[in-house]
Amino acid sequence: MNVTLFVTCLVDLFHVNVGKATVELLERLGCTIHFPEAQTCCGQPAYNSGYVKEAKEAMKHMIRTFEHAEYIVTPSGSCATMFKEYPHIFKGDSEWEERAKRVADRTYELTQFIVNVLKVEDVGARLEGKATYHTSCHMTRLLGVKDAPLTLLQHVKGLEVVPLPNAHNCCGFGGTFSVKMGPISEQMVDEKIQCIEQVEADYLIGADCGCLMNIGGRIERKGKPIRVMHIAEVLNSR
Amino acid sequence: MAMKINMGEFHERVEKGIHNTFMRGAVAGAQERLRTRRLEAAQELGNWEEWRALGEEIRQHTLEHLDYYLMQLSENVKKRGGHVFFAQTAEEANDYICRVVASKQAKKIVKSKSMVTEEIHMNAALEKLGCEVIETDLGEYILQVDDHDPPSHIVAPALHKNKEQIRDVFQEKLAYTKTEKPEELALHARHMLRHEYMTADVGITGCNFAVAETGSITLVTNEGNADLVTALPKTQITVMGMERIVPTFEEMEVLVSLLTRSAVGQKLTSYITVLTGPREEGEVDGPEEFHLVIVDNGRSDILGTEFQPVLQCIRCAACVNVCPVYRHIGGHSYGSIYSGPIGAVLSPLLGGYDDYKELPYASTLCAACTEACPVKIPLHELLLKHRQTIVEREGKAPISEKLAMKAFGLGAASSLLYKLGSKIAPTAVHPFTTNDRISKGPGPLKAWTDIREFPAPEKERFRDWFKQRGEE
């Protein structure tokens, strides 16, 4: 199966290992990975800050880059949601609406793609320890992907997955919120970390590098012994 | 603007909220209880999504034909002998209410809970007239006794106080001698209030839903105080926001079902009071005179705009009860009587961006509010629309942010610029990097690294790895 990888800017620049794990994992599952070099960012930082004009420039560029792909797969629920929003954003635009829809229709978050398209629930991964999973807001509420990551994690050998208390509460990332509303964000991420500690998890697993950068950055600052992993890295563990 | 509470800048209010551990404990506990109860009540009803869709349809239909239904309501209230006044502004509403009260030479007024009277600061106007205004909703009563502490939640106004604090307020102000047991506190308040109902000249209520077809008003309470406020005083004034209307009882029933379940997780509240005009011949209770004050106060400016869905709101506070930001800062931080996600959308519309420009940013856009709303208001999308308005039409965004976003637009729309920028990034931040981490970031990174570590950009980008791998 031909998969066109939308790696996301965060992975491209800051979390290269997540990108590598995504490629290796999908290849092991029989996919051929294409990586359009022209890809940049989905436009969400500008869009969510109210800069729609600037965001649309980025979006048009991404539409041009991905519109001929068969399956667009991305290791981020939030960036996948942004792609899915494109037709809504370009509604009524005769040049772009259809093209945006084409991109949106072919976009899948990584775990959603593995479970729903490849129909695989056990990727043959192994990781020893106790983990809890952070349900990212955009992936869960807007993209509607709730079960796929948990289904995949349940099949990871050696891994005990325990529910995260108050999992429905946002971790406090929210893109520019994390810097614009620093003091509030700090309280939110601290409560999230308390919940992770409460279940004595060795690993905090998530499917969005934004949330993981926030939670992980705070865990590191506080020197907590919790390892933060992207689900692609977990599923690629042997 | 009248709905404003609390002096001080937004960030100062937030700081105060964050450091109020009593309030935060109370809010977190209430959120968890209310959320669980709401989910259980929704599940028990079954087909919750269909109910939401129906609620949305009813609210949208009513707003689309608001002029028609308001006319119908007004005619039917008058037919039953009531008086109707359309107030375009808060001042007009208060003037009318004061005129009615003065004409009765009223001294004592009892009130059941109403957000719109808070919005127009009606109590202050009446007090200026020399009247004593007594809140009879337990939460509102506690706040009033506590030197007019403003409400922090649209359904549970005293949510920010715990029972020990309430006991202290009662001891100080009401010669209360018993414990912090809620039953004892409530009994004391009830005892104090009973006398007030009997001696009040005027009763004032809000309105959950006005029924256009019959000219009735509906009040949803758990304490029964609205029954006494409407049954005992000779004159009754009901104040309603102009959008709080349904065509018939059939729609009222749907919305009440959504309201009570969403607000407190109950199938029904203890009392649902329906009133149609003043007392008629042969009736044993009810007011001799009934006035309905329909308040616009900025609402008609919202009609027909992209923000119209906010007028669908039935004031259940389900969005407040799931909001992770409200959870940590409490209601007073919003600086408006409307707090939480609904407040962050509504306050800038009714009160202007000068006072409320920060509120649309006090959200991570996590969409918990949108998911919880029983009438499907896309709250997080409306917050985004506010941000867009602030940037594009109001021009209130900081210059540094505008420049950064301009650069983002250019960089993300050009693969060449993106590649170049990302290539030099590790070198650019090298002076701030230790062990692949940035702990004290420069410029815009500082706000991030004040709280958390920031990963240094990797020397080998993903794209470099992928390309090299292909070449091997």
UniProtKB/TrEMBL annotation, chain A:
Alphabetical GO CC annotations of the entry are:
cytosol
Tell me where the transmembrane regions lie: none
Domain Cysteine-rich, first and last residues per copy: 3-84, 132-215
Q: What does this protein do?
A: Is involved in L-lactate degradation and allows cells to grow with lactate as the sole carbon source.
Q: Name one GO molecular function term.
A: oxidoreductase activity
Q: Which family does it belong to?
A: Belongs to the LutA/YkgE family.
Origin superkingdom: Bacteria
> Would you kindly state one Gene Ontology biological process term found in this protein's UniProt entry?
lactate metabolic process
Matching PANTHER family: LACTATE UTILIZATION PROTEIN A (PTHR30296:SF0), UNCHARACTERIZED PROTEIN YKGE (PTHR30296)
Name this protein carries in UniProt:
Lactate utilization protein A
User: Can you name the source organism?
Assistant: Anoxybacillus flavithermus
TrEMBL record, chain B:
Which UniProt key words apply to this protein?
4Fe-4S, Electron transport, Iron, Iron-sulfur, Metal-binding, Repeat, Transport
Task: Give the 4Fe-4S ferredoxin-type domain ranges.
Answer: 303-334
State the source organism's domain of life: Bacteria
Which protein is depicted? Lactate utilization protein B
Signal peptide residue numbers: none
Q: Which PROSITE patterns match?
A: 4FE4S_FER_1, 4FE4S_FER_2
Q: Does the keyword Iron-sulfur apply?
A: yes
Pfam families reported in the protein's UniProt record: Fer4_8 (PF13183), LUD_dom (PF02589), LutB_C (PF11870)
Q: What the protein does?
A: Is involved in L-lactate degradation and allows cells to grow with lactate as the sole carbon source. Has probably a role as an electron transporter during oxidation of L-lactate.
Which amino acid positions bind [4Fe-4S] cluster 1, per UniProt? C313, C316, C319, C373
Any GO BP annotation:
lactate metabolic process
Q: Which GO terms describe its molecular function?
A: 4 iron, 4 sulfur cluster binding; metal ion binding
The record, for SUPFAM superfamilies, names: alpha-helical ferredoxin (SSF46548), NagB/RpiA/CoA transferase-like (SSF100950)
